[in-house]
């Protein structure tokens, strides 16, 4: 038997897109919740290596000190006098986070110590200086 088209029938088929849109939103929410964001200081430093270097997993506040003595936090160059205020602000956002100072191998020692002192004055309980692990360890 053949099916004959009458003048009232149209040949178009409609697809309901609502379940597809719902699935896309669910996937979007899933990937947003499960993703981890990496914080960066904004500059690349050549860290010294140390045999006792340990991985710091809960580093929430990263401070970089370049070889020329510049201080970077959250991809912004800051004045040494503003380190304490910036660390206090970042600690208010994440009170449990540790402070890690990424000092370049050629960074002036006085600037690194000043940053370390300012981080301690800001109330950070855990302040450490980053180093690379010795190769082959």
TrEMBL record:
KW Metal-binding (keyword) present: no
Species this chain originates from: endosymbiont of Ridgeia piscesae
Q: Which UniProt keywords are present, listed alphabetically?
A: Cell membrane, Membrane, Protein transport, Transmembrane, Transmembrane helix, Transport
Q: One short Pfam family name for this protein? A: ExbD
Membrane topology note:
Single-pass membrane protein; Single-pass type II membrane protein
Which family is this sequence assigned to?
Belongs to the ExbD/TolR family.
Respond yes or no to whether keyword Membrane is given for this record: yes
Listed GO biological process terms: protein transport
One molecular function GO term is: transmembrane transporter activity
Gene3D superfamilies for the chain: 3.30.420.270
Query: What transmembrane ranges does the database entry give?
Result: 20-38
One of the record's GO cellular component terms = plasma membrane
State its location(s): Cell membrane
Protein name as catalogued: Outer membrane transport energization protein ExbD
């Amino acid at each position: 038997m053949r099916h004959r088209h009458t003048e009232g029938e149209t040949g178009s088929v409609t697809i309901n897109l609502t379940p597809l849109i719902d699935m896309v939103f669910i996937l979007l929410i899933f990937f947003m919740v499960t993703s981890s964001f990496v914080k960066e200081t904004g500059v690349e430093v050549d860290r010294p290596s140390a045999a006792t270097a340990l991985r710091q997993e809960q580093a929430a506040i990263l401070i970089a000190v370049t070889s020329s003595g510049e201080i970077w936090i959250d991809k912004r160059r800051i004045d040494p006098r503003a380190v304490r205020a910036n660390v206090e602000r970042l600690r208010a956002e994440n009170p449990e986070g540790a402070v890690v100072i990424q000092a370049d191998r050629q960074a002036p020692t006085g600037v690194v110590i000043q940053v370390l002192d300012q981080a301690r004055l800001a109330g950070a309980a855990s302040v450490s200086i980053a180093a690379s692990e010795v190769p082959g360890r």
